[in-house]
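Following up on my earlier message about zinc ion. Here are the inputs again, as you asked, copied directly from the submission form:
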Amino acid sequence: MKEHNSTVLLYYYFVKIDDPEHLASQQRFLCQKHGLKGRILIANEGINGTIAGSVEGIQAYQTAMRSDSRFESMEFKISHHERMPFPKLMVKIRPEIVTLGANMPLDTAQEGGTHLSPAEWKRMIEEDKDVVLFDTRNRYESDIGKFKDAICPNTENFRDLPDALSNYEQYKDKKFLMYCTGGIRCEKATVLFKKAGFKNVFQLQGGIVNYWKEEGHSHWEGDCFVFDERMYLKPPGTVEEVTSIGRCVHSNQPTSHFINCLHDQCHKLILVHPDLIEEDSLNQICPTCREKGFNLETAIYPGSPAQQAKKTPKTRKNRLSRKRSINNEPNPNPETSQSH
Ligand SMILES: [Zn+2]
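Thanks, got it. Here's what our run produced:
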C-alpha cells in the first residue's frame, strides 16, 4: 500500500446487530485482508467506523459491506490524506456506537430529527428567520470552526450534552437545526432534544463533511476538527481564503494547531500556535496549569524531572486520575478518541 496517499472512509449505520462478536471478527478479517487501519465500533445498535488504506483496499471494503443485506444502504464518506492517519486497526464492541449515555432508549430511526440535505439546510439558513443553529460537537471542535452564529455548548465530551441541555430551553419553539461532523452524533442528540420538548428539530444529513462536499463552505467559518492524526480539515478548494477562527491560548494568534497540555494529569486539548512551542517548550503547558505553578520541572510527563523524582508506588488515587485522563482524552489516538 502506498502510505503517502491514503483514502479515508467514514461511515456509521444504525441497524440491529444480533451477534457483535461475530461481526467484529468478520471486520478484523476484512480489514487485515485489504491492509486497512483505523477504528471500528460495533454495538447491538449498529456499526461506526473510520478506516483508511489504499484506494483499492477501501473499494474492496465498501463492496464487501454492501454485499451484506444489513448494510446495503449504508452511506460512505470518503476523504484523502497524504499518509496513513491511523497507527493500527482497532475493532471494539461497545454498549453504544457513539456514547451519549442518556440512560434511556433512543430510537434513532423513529424518533430522530427531520433530515435536511445540505441544499435544504442552506436554504433554511438563508430564507427562514426562525432558525437556531446548534453544534452538537465538543467545545474544542467548535473552537476552530463552526457554522456562523451557531450555538456551541461548552462540553468536553458528547456524554456531557444531556446535562447541558437545560441551558437551551428558550429555543424549544424555534426551528432547531443540529449538526455535527459526519451526522452520527445528531442521530442521537436530536432524539434527546425532542424528548426534552423541542418541537421542530432538524439534523444535517451527513454532517459538515457532506455539506462541504455539496455546498462548499458558505455560512461556515474556520476548519473542521477530526479525530485522527490529521486533527482538522480545511474546506475543500478554499484553503487560502478561509482563515482559522481558533486562537492560541497563550498569544491569541489565529491557529488550528491543537496539543494536549503537557502535564499528564491535565492533558486538556488546547490551541497553541506552533511558533510558540518552538520559542519555548513551556508553552506546551496550559495557562491553568501554569497558574497553578506547573513548569517543565514540576509538570508530570514521560521522562520529566518531577516524574523521575516521584517514582512512588501507584496509589489508588493516581490510578483513578490516570484512568480519567485517558478516558477523556480527545487526542487523535484512536484508542480513546470520540466519534465523528
Ligand atoms: Zn493543563
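One observation from looking it over: Confidence is low (pLDDT under 50) at residues 316-330, 332-338. Hope that helps, and feel free to reply on this thread.
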